[in-house]
Design brief:
- By secondary structure, the chain is of the alpha+beta class.
- 25% of the residues lie in helices and 42% in strands.
- It has 2 helices and 9 strands.
- The chain has helices at 48-70, 128-140, and strands spanning 2-4, 9-11, 17-21, 24-28, 34-41, 75-83, 92-99, 104-113, 116-125.
- The strands form 2 sheets. A 7-stranded antiparallel sheet has the order 3-4-5-9-8-7-6, sandwiched between helices.
- Strand 4 and strand 5 (34-41) form a beta hairpin.
- The radius of gyration is 15 Å and the shape is globular.
């Protein structure tokens, strides 16, 4: 299903159950996977310089949240948060972490556009399927239009 917001659009995994958790969208997969998507948006009036500073601050805070999530207690960071070309037209950073016993994976990404930042996380049973699902999701993220 295509989801279109003010700053981003993306495709949800086919057949997953959608729910809303406050300002976040959550999608549950058939094997217990959970994809959570949220966005921060810069709104209001001000100079271009003020807007750029607000956007930089939003991005920096979101990247910090992603770094903290990737290194949460109980997780091993396999691929640190780094710039990623998964989203064709937008700056993207992603990470891969897994549980210490390697049974569960936790993946995340931050995507930036003018006036907004998207944060997405996916957790579920470790393996190639989880990574493939996340890469497919990221490749669907775009500006609305």
């Amino acid at each position: 299903m295509l989801r279109v917001g003010a700053r981003f659009q993306f495709e949800t995994p086919a057949g997953w159950v959608e729910s809303r958790q406050g300002s976040r969208w959550a999608y549950r997969g058939p094997r217990g996977q959970e994809l959570v998507v949220s966005a921060g948006v810069v709104e209001g009036t001000g100079t271009d310089v003020d807007r750029e500073k607000a956007e930089e601050t939003l991005l920096a805070r979101t990247l910090l949240l992603a770094r903290e999530a990737a290194s949460h207690e109980g997780l091993v960071n396999v691929v640190p948060l780094t710039r990623d070309g998964a989203v064709a037209d937008l700056p993207c950073w992603s990470f891969v972490s897994e549980s210490r016993e390697k049974s569960a994976g936790f993946l995340g990404a931050v995507v930036q556009t003018t006036g907004g930042v998207l944060l997405a996380t996916l957790e579920g049973p470790s393996g190639d399927e989880l990574l493939s699902t996340f890469r497919q999701f990221l490749s669907s993220v775009r500006r609305p239009g």
